Amino acid sequence: MKFLRNVTLALLAALPFAARSQAPALTTFSVGSTTVTASALATNLDHVWELLWGPDNFLWMTERSGRISRVDPATGQVLPLLTLPDVTPVGESGLLGMVLDPDFAATPYVYVVYNYTEAGSLKEKLVRLTYSATANTLTAPLVLLGDIPATTTHSGSRLLILPDRTLLMTTGDAQLLPEAQSLASLNGKILRLNLDGTVPADNPTPGSLVYTLGHRNPQGLVRLPDGRLYSSEHGPNNDDEINKIEAGRNYGWPSVEGNCTTPSELAFCAANNVREPLTTWTPTIAPAGLTYYDHPAIPGWRGSLLLATLKNQQLVQLPLSPTGDDITARTEFVTNAFGRLRAICVAPSGAVYLGTSNGSTDRIIALENRSFVATGTRAASDFSFSLFPNPARRQATVQLPQPNALLTVRDLLGRAVLTRRATGTTATLDLSSLRPGAYSLQVQTALGSATRQLVVE
């Protein structure tokens, strides 16, 4: 255990990574008073489907043809790990979503979902792979969930691991429209599994993997630091959606398209616990990757969902209301600049990475505020805070240099797992929801920002 803790702390210490040499600007645009520069990090890719920021401070990427790679954010070098031999990349099918185990230092598992062919039929499965840092390989495939009917369209699928170590997986309706409303089918759902593939005991329907139902083709999924979940979903010729995901809710498809408006939709919604979307688009925009932005590098994006779109070839900012139940505006960026956009992720530096989905000339695009300097690099005499006890168990106390500080606890993947606003100069963190392990605590005030390691026992 002491060895694993040391490895974990070493990974945390590596979080402040060196900035990559500045690549030539492809374009610039304004977000409020901030100038954002877009540049190409990696090129000659093929239908980038997933981008994640890994605990090794590399981007992890899937391409629809079946390749999984690590990408060096400093140089753009693509380091292939594995090309899955049984992926079927036909139409929109192929290698789709990916997520890394939250305890990656101890259990270096990589979860992927992809389409494959069995007995002449296209299907979908969730597979766990094991990563070797020394060999730079992925091996030991273990099927956690398979035999899901699929077609060359409407397969989903994004993956997300929750703090309780359960996994969410989105599935499309595979053009089998009635299946989206059937609890006996895994199509048209958001599924929730334990990391060994079993059914969590507290799922909405006992013995069932179904977490939510009534989905058409959800291709974006994100969790906010406070636990709220959101998904993006393709509509037919109308009503693309952003949904707030709540356990056990029905999202209407195919009986409801968008909001509950017609008499038949209103009756169905009343009878089936339907959760209406936060916003819709008609004509459709083909929404794909979805993330949340709350970093000082680009202040105008803070508190917003960021959505990558395929058909409209845009990055869309969707600010959330304080309760998270409303989207207060829609602002588009980089329209038609890079073609179809599928994947999106945010680095700990505040840079946003986009993966394009045009063909064999695809790229990873970096969006950066090149004038931003992380104040966490300032001298301790300029800014500091105290944290005790550390290691901590259920609670930790933070002594702050000034009130109104934002406190963010991040896991090894750089994801915010706990946030709170401190009104005074002393704050108590409730750590009871966090698993034992190493984290980082970032404190942001008007004086600056600083980060310390936090160990939860």
UniProtKB/TrEMBL annotation:
Keywords: Signal. Coiled coil: none annotated. Transmembrane segments: none annotated. Residues 45-360 form the Glucose/Sorbosone dehydrogenase domain. This is Dehydrogenase, PQQ-dependent, s-GDH family. It comes from the Bacteria. Residues 387-456 form the Secretion system C-terminal sorting domain. The keyword Amino-acid biosynthesis does not apply. Pfam families: GSDH, Por_Secre_tail.
